Amino acid sequence: MQQFGVIGLSVMGKNLALNVRNHGFSVSGFSIDKPEVDALAKYEDDKLKPCYTWEEFVDSLEKPRKILVQIMAGDPVDQTIQKLIPLLDKGDIIIDGGNSNFHDTNRRYHELKKHGLHFIGMGVSGGEEGALNGPALMPGGDKEAYEEAAPILTAMAAKTEDGRACVSYIGPEGAGHYVKMVHNGMEYAIMQEISEVYDIMRKVAHKSNKEMADIFAEWDKGDLNAYLIEIASQVLRQKDDLTDDDVIDHILNVASYKGTGNWMLEDAIKLGTPITVVAEAVLARFMSKATTREGKEVVYDGEVASDLIDNLGKAMYLAQIVAYAQGFQQLTMAAKAYDWELNYPAIAQNWEAGCIIHAKTLYHIEDAYADGKQLDNLFQDPYFAGVMEKNLPALRAVVKLAAEAGVPTPSFSAALNYLESIFNPSLPANMIQAQRDYFGAHTYYRNDREGVYHTEWYEEK
Ligand SMILES: NC(=O)C1=CN([C@@H]2O[C@H](COP(=O)(O)OP(=O)(O)OC[C@H]3O[C@@H](n4cnc5c(N)ncnc54)[C@H](OP(=O)(O)O)[C@@H]3O)[C@@H](O)[C@H]2O)C=CC1
Ligand SMILES: O=C(CO)[C@H](O)[C@H](O)COP(=O)(O)O
């Protein structure tokens, strides 16, 4: 009997199945798409079994069955669950490893409970390479079921620099998919920031692709060490297959999305979380689709300070931390709103390797939340407060220069405004409150005494 099963053998499912097998566990793989099963069958051995029918797949698994569903999110997951329910036994475990919306996961978790089945909604990150060699895993749902699957999940997960597995139980219901959604929102934010740095370097500092690749590679050796910084360098070095040029210069500048970042923003609006950089990153993808392509190119021939690249690195580091701070702020607010006990150091550890946003900064974030420290905002931690103090002038200088040059920096500007606002005791919201009270008698609170107040702003005519 096989110890683990995977349904959906596309990019992620096939590699996750091979990963499980490579760690010494026996695994069955099934897909409704026969060619996907044929592709897995090339690796068939005593630990890896390709299956061509639902029944063959389910019957091949030892009980309690542990089945990873790694397919397109949405209706296909409900269809797959409906197909599985009559074939499974009480106590079996379904793990949804796709990018499912956490609302769907909440619903499925409660529905499957009624059938005596366990459900784990598990965020998976790492793309094709991570799936094979070690992804970050964010499982939520039944704790008891997680413990049952933990030996396999721990073996297949990425490992931090000191060998700890990038997986831990996140929380009940859809908490695992919530955390993956926040991961992806921060992914959008950091990718947008990198694209703005690239834009300033090419249009203001007039750097070639090779020079920019070298700068990103250099940054990757220091504080900014991160997977997304590393691949930015590799992207800039890549030659085109169809021309003699660099491929980056022929990629259409319209950003696509499957929407997990958008979901983070939707929930932030519900919770009232000021995730301004994530919001700008989501909107920048819309903007890339909406821009008319008939305008004039930005040509900057003004003076460029000798410390521009140094400032860009410092600004990028601070802006990257703002993205993480906003992600953790949203997690803190969601935990309160949904009554989840989230373990922030464990979440940071889950993201230290294997996933798309893995970066050296995450080790500092783990330290910031260690020993049960409660932070409303990551910048309350002394390390991050220090980076803010040191790097804020660079961020301000970069935003100022970009504004002068006419290069849009939605995420960098949002990061700067966030830092200027978040610890600011005198934001001008008193004017908004006064106007609301003026036109709508909406009332206001005072800063000098308790109670709710209304002013008679004008005489009734
Ligand atoms: N690609 C990535 O980098 C990452 C992807 N993910 C998530 O992992 C999941 C799988 O991703 P990926 O491997 O890229 O593949 P896709 O998201 O492209 O999904 C393809 C798989 O879903 C199956 N599928 C589609 N509809 C159904 C259905 N109605 N019933 C059963 N199976 C169905 C497909 O079978 P068929 O060929 O027959 O349509 C195929 O096996 C997704 O939720 C994705 O968001 C998570 C992290 C990273
Ligand atoms: O989950 C992922 C990485 O972590 C997937 O690659 C996801 O598709 C990325 O999001 P989008 O397609 O919206 O850019």
UniProtKB/TrEMBL annotation:
One of its GO terms (biological process) is D-gluconate metabolic process. GO terms for molecular function: NADP binding; phosphogluconate dehydrogenase (decarboxylating) activity. Pfam families: 6PGD, NAD_binding_2. Keywords: Gluconate utilization, NADP, Oxidoreductase, Pentose shunt. Residues 176-458 form the 6-phosphogluconate dehydrogenase C-terminal domain. Substrate binds at residues 99, 125-127, 183-184, 188, 258, 285, 436, 442. The active site is at 180 (proton acceptor), 187 (proton donor). SMART domains: 6PGD. Pathway: Carbohydrate degradation; pentose phosphate pathway; D-ribulose 5-phosphate from D-glucose 6-phosphate (oxidative stage): step 3/3. It catalyses: 6-phospho-D-gluconate + NADP(+) = D-ribulose 5-phosphate + CO2 + NADPH. InterPro entries: 6-PGluconate_DH-like_C_sf, 6PGD_dom2, 6PGDH_C, 6PGDH_Gnd/GntZ, 6PGDH_NADP-bd, NAD(P)-bd_dom_sf, Pgluconate_DH. Coiled coil: none annotated. Catalyzes the oxidative decarboxylation of 6-phosphogluconate to ribulose 5-phosphate and CO(2), with concomitant reduction of NADP to NADPH. Homodimer. This is 6-phosphogluconate dehydrogenase, decarboxylating. The lineage of its organism: Bacteria, Bacillati, Bacillota, Bacilli, Lactobacillales.
